[in-house]
Each structure stands twice: as structure tokens, then as C-alpha cells.
Amino acid sequence: MKKKLSLGRKIYLFVGITVFVAGIVVAILSYFINASRINGYFSELSVDSARYIASLADAKALLELKKVVQSEEYQSLREVAEEEDNEQLVEDFFKEHGVWEIYSCTREIIV
Amino acid sequence: MKDVEYVYFIVWGGPDEQYDMYLVDDDTTPMYETGYYELREKELAGIDATKEIAPTISHGDWGWLCSSYSPVYTDDGILVCQVGCDVAMDDIMKERYQNFILILVAALASTGLITAGLMFLIRRRLIRPLDSITGEMIKFSPAEDLDPVKSGVIDLSINSKDEIEDIYHEIRSMQFRILDYLGDVKKKEKANRAKDAFLANMSHEIRTPLNGILGMDEMIIKDTKENRIKKYALDIKSAGNTLLSLINDILDLSKIDSGNFEIISLDYSMTSVINDVINMTKPRADKKGLTYNFTVSPEIPSKLHGDEIRIRQVMLNIINNAIKYTKEGHVVVNISTEKGQDPTGRMLIVKVTDSGIGIKDEDKDKLFKSFQRLDEEKNRNIEGTGLGLHITFRLVEMMGGHIDVQSEYGKGSVFTLNIPQGVVDPVPLGDFSEAVDRYLSEITTDETTLYAPDAKVLIVDDNEMNLEVMAGLLRDTKIRLEFAMSGRECIEKVKKNKYDCIFLDQMMPEMNGDATLTEMKDQDILKDTPVIALTADAIVGARESYIAMGFTDYLSKPVKYDVMEQELKKYLPSHKQLTPKTVESKELPVLLIWGDDPARIKEEKERLSGSYKCVCVTGQAAMEKYLSNYKPSGVLHV
Lengths: 111, 638
Prior knowledge:
Chain A is mainly α. Chain A has helices at about 5-55, 60-70, 70-85, 85-95, 100-110. The N and C termini of chain A lie far apart (about 80 Å).
């Protein structure tokens, strides 16, 4: 009788594959558990930071700034300033519309 | 604000709006970045900024970021914007991948190690033994001459192409071999049954005429007053008994060889066995002029448990052999016991020393083989078949013992039987002569001669001579005998008469004993009448098989008067068996015969029993004991 695969080899293969697969599964599980905990930590960190900064922000002032920034005039100016890489134009515009202080204060909070 | 990469104030529309607006960003971003843009990030699209936004983790031009948002409301609840906060995750992500690779490598390494360990164990505990088993089993080549279909071996169709299939094939092959072997066993059993049947027939055919010869001879011995005729009759008896023992030997050997021989252990008195052995061997030794010494250790327990008949047989064989092969000098028998392997039993040791011809060293191996006679030329004149020692050897072996032989050619031999026996009564035998006297006196008081004129016995046998012998043997008992020569005649007689006992021959034409008994039982005509099987079928186990058939007991042919008398005493109603005193008053005068030689006493009893009611005892003590209880008409010392 021709032996295709001896019982010993079959058992070795079975044990080898089973243990190998088990090892891989353990490694993957470990990776995902680890990733999930890291993601959770970072999410919490970023949410806390965002809330903290939001609590410092002056909503009324920002509302004013928003209105200025939403204007067509500012949009046109912004494009020019971007083309020329000239921030002074924006600063002047904000100062002209009385929101420069709000803008810079808010930037300070962020920084 | 540790670890925070970017913070920005952002406004973006609801799900349908295409644009978002950066209101304020950190100071690293140019101011002109503040304003409308196409939606910056894919993940922001479709998000309703008026609601709580879950943190997102994304990877883009800025690397890995974890982004969270928090709304900014005015006091009257108007949402102004969301504060976005991005935390860089590049480092941790890099670390995470490194860790994963590390874990994977560690897992693979550990699994590799575990696998190697498991494989080592599996190889050691399973594969190697399996290989060995397969290797061993492969040595059995398949029995190709057997047809699997006919043999009934089911093909399980195991085609695993590995050791399992190898083992399956070998088991299958072994199944064929076992079936083959069982077939042979069945054939042998069939042959053995045929042999047993042949032996039973042979036994019957030889014993039937022998029964006639010995029975008639017994009557001649009883009736004749002429010493010359009596001597001839005694010679016939001796020759007949030799022939009978030869038949018994052949039957025994056959049974032993076929494995049907049984050792039947019962309680027995050692005194009785030794006394019988002495009585049966001493006359031969005396006749040859040998010095015959018989020493019995006083330490032997008085009652033992074993196969008394076989113990007696092996002792007789060994001692008779010693006497047979000793021309002059001595035969010394020493019987003792010692502690055996079984703490509750004893090892019976029978040592027989002779000054006979001895055994050559090269012949010792042949000693216990069947049909082997040693030194044939020298021993041509010594009678024997070469079966005795072989049977002795086999019997001793079956009883769990062994035989030791020491011999010097030309000088003599020492045969030692070692047979384990159970102990029933540990009280030592003490002085053997006294023990024999005690034993004989007990036997004598029990051996009242049967006299039952009121008893009615039916004897059924198809052989007229056998009926005549039985009638002759029972003549002095005055029992009223009736005869039937067939089963049918027996049934007719039993229907009409009430018998106290029936002796029923087994081997009869037309209707054998078994069928006759069955019919009588079916017709319910027997009532409580004991039926004793009378047969020449004397093979071992015959008694048990006849009792199993429904017979009350069994009597082997040639019928010995003593045995038949014992049977009748056992089964005849006691009120019909008269006591010696009654006999004395009604019949012959009582003669007490006593002496030291049992054979001589028996001879005198047979000679005088026609004229006297003979009571025999051995030894003076027994004689005195009898005389203290009874007053015989005369006393004869022989």
C-alpha cells in the first residue's frame, strides 16, 4: 500500500497548523485590543481638549467675527492676501471692522 | 493642552452644504486661511454640526490624527462654531505596528516552540508505538486463501493511506486468521467428539464381555471349594483386571489429551489412601522377594482435600513401576507433607526409592512421554504399555504438582511426587499402624453385609450373561430379583410392579437406558424408585452426565460386588436392610476373620462366605474392638 501521508505527518501538520493559527489569532486579538485602548485614550484626550478650549472661547465675540468673515468683501480680500501671501491685508481688514482683538484673543487661547 | 497638534475654530454647514469655514486657526496658519473652503476633510462631510460629533481617527497629509469637536454656544443657545482639536497619533501608530509585529513574532516563536514540544511528545507517545505496532502487525501476511464474503468479515473501507489503514488491514488479516483457526478448532472439536464417541463405544464393547468374564469368574471364586480351580479363577481375575486397567489408561490418556479430563477435588482420609496403596502394592513386592518399606510421617494431616482417586492412581503408578523394574533389593516409600505455596494447604510428598535398573541420562527426557518404554531390549520381559508414567506426569501436572526424578543407571532411582493438597482436618495422622487400625475398625462396623430378602430389584440388560452375573453376585443378599432384557420390557414390568431399585443398562438396542428412563418419567410410573445407570461407558465424567440425564446414580461395568452393595445400601429402604444381628438369627453363623494381610483376609472371606456370614477386620486392635461389641460364632486368624 502506498502511503500518501503518514499518520505522524498528518498529526504534525494538524498540530502545527492549529498552534500556528492559534498564535496568529492571539496576536491579532492582542493587536485589536491594544488598538482599541489606544484609540479610546486618544479620543478622550482630544475630546477633553476640544471641550476645554470651547469653554474658554467667547461665543458672542466669535459670532461677530463670523459675520465679518462671512462677508463677500472679506472673501475677495482673503483671496488677494493669499495670492500675495500678505497677512497684513487681513489684519488691517479685521482691525477696520473691529474684530481684530477678538481674532487675536481667540488665537491666543488656541496657542 | 499637552499632545494636541492642531486646534481650530471651525464652522461648517449641515449635511447639504459644500463648504466649511475656518474662523480661527492657530498662529502657525496664515491669517488668510480664515474663510470659506470646500469641505476640508471627507469625514466632516454630512456631519450635522449642531449635534454632538464623535471623535474620528484619520490618516491623511497631516499623518494620523484623532479629531474631536466641541460646540461653542452663545448664552441664548445659538451655535457659533465647533472647536476642533486634532491629536497627532503618528508616533503611537508607529509604536502600535511595531508592537503588533513584536507580538506576532513572539506568538509565532512560542507557537513554534509549543508545536515542537507537542510533536516531540506525540512522536514519543503515539507515533513511535503506533509505528512499532504497525511494524509488528505487518509481519502477519494476509490470509489470501480466505474469501472475505464467505468469512463474514465486514470491509469497513478505510482508505486513509496511513498507519490506521495499515492497522485496519492487519486486523482484518488477523480476523481471517482467527476465523481460519476457529474453523480448524471446530474441525478438531468434531474429530474429538467422534473420538470420544468411538472411545465410549470401544469402552462399552470391551467392557461388556469383560464384565461377563470377570462376573462369572467372581462367581467361580465364590462357589468353588476346589483350590486348583480357585487359583485358575484368581489368575483370570488378575489378568482381567490388568486388561481393565489398560483400557482405563487408554481412556484416561485420551481424555487428558483432548482436555476433557477433570480433577475432582473432595475431602478424603489419607489413611484410607495409604492403606489401599499398601494393600495393592505389597503383595507384588512380596511376591518378587523385595524388601518393601513404607514410612508414613506422623505429621501428615488426617484429612486432606484433593482428588483422592487420582492421588491413589499416581501413587500406585509410581510404586508399581518401582516394583516392576526392581529385580532384587528394596523399594522404599516415604510419604510426608510440608508447607506449600498455599498457606492453607500442604505439599504432599511421595518419595519412592528403589534399587532397580535405573535410567540412563539420555533416556531421562523420554521418561514421561507416552508409549515410550526405556531400555526396551533389557525390559522386554517386563509388562507395560509405556502409558503409566506419562499419565502420572500429566495427572500430577493437572493437580498443580510436579515430579522429580533422580536416577543412576544400574543402581536405582528416586521418584518424588510433589502434589499440593488442601487441609480439611489438620490433626496429625500420628502413628500410621494405629491410624490404619482405627480406620479399619470404622470401616468394619460400617461394612455389614447386605441382606435384604424383602427388597425387590429390577435389573435391565440386553446381555443375558450380564443378568446372570448380577444375579450370581446378589445371590447371598436374598434380594428378590427380576430381570428385563429391553427397555420396553422394563417399562411393562415397572407399570405392574413396585421396585425398590432399578439397575438400567444404558446401551441397549431399540430403546436405550436414557430413552427408557425418559418414558418411565413421562408416564409417571417410577414414583420415587431410584434408577441406577448400568453401563460399560466408564470414561471420566460419565457419572455426572448420567446424573444430568436423570439417573439417580451410576454403576460402571464390570460390576464389582462391593460397589454394587454400597449402591444398594444407599438406595434400598433402610427398613428392608436387615441388621447383622437379624441376619445372624435368621441365617448363617457369623465368622470373624482377622489378620494383618488384607489380601489374605479377603481371600478367606471369599472362600468361606458360602458357609459363614464373614466379618473381616485388619489388626488386633480392630479385632478386639469388634469382639467387645459382638459375639461371632467363630474367630479365624489368618
